[in-house]
Amino acid sequence: MNPFITAISTGVTAFTATNLDDIVILLLFFSQVNAVFRRQHIVTGQYLGFAALVLLSLPSFFGCMMVPRPWVGMLGLVPIAIGVSRLLNRDTEADENTATDSPPSTIFASLLSPQTYTVAAVTFANGGDNVGIYVPLFANCTWDSLLVILSVFFLLVGVWCYVAYQLTRMSAIATLLVRYGNSLVPFVLMGLGTLILLDSHTLEDRGLTVVTVAISCLWLLTLLKDSYLSLETAPQVEKIEVN
Hints:
Elements: H1 3-31, H2 39-57, H3 69-72, H4 77-88, H5 90-97, H6 107-111, H7 114-125, H8 128-139, H9 143-168, H10 171-199, H11 206-233
């Protein structure tokens, strides 16, 4: 078979096998779009997170040693942290959803946006399977096949974003996402992070388990402290009773 065709089919197969679950995450992200969290943030963040996964896997092409899988699994703490944060700050997100006077977001502005890096962090944290497959794949590539495969990968990232966005515009799916999306997102992210930790066997290593618990406790204490301070400093709104 033509090496060019082989490289394309390999790229499509590898990308599809490692990114099917990203469709669900993208669906949830696109269902959260509002005046603050825009489509540009999701697409840019998806590309940044995926590019980071590719960069992490590329050293195998040059024969370098990779990070052990249990250590990569600690990235599961990222979606857990984001999920808990969203769960504890639903009022803030509700206020953001009502904002309408927001300037148009440019691609450059999206690169500097914290919303973009939230998406990128989730994409990167969910990439344990990607790294596990891309490392041996890149190790067996030639320069020509590597360039073709990477081109296919980054083209399909855009296709994935487009498909997920179009699915959110279907009435049945859109209705479900609007009704339950805000409530589901924190739990989906926390579940995703837990699966990453378990699938990577991170918690089977006692040392990594201690580190994971310590990081989680410190972060949770910081988050609870910030939430308490925000409640203390929030302006009190008087309720007006209408007779």
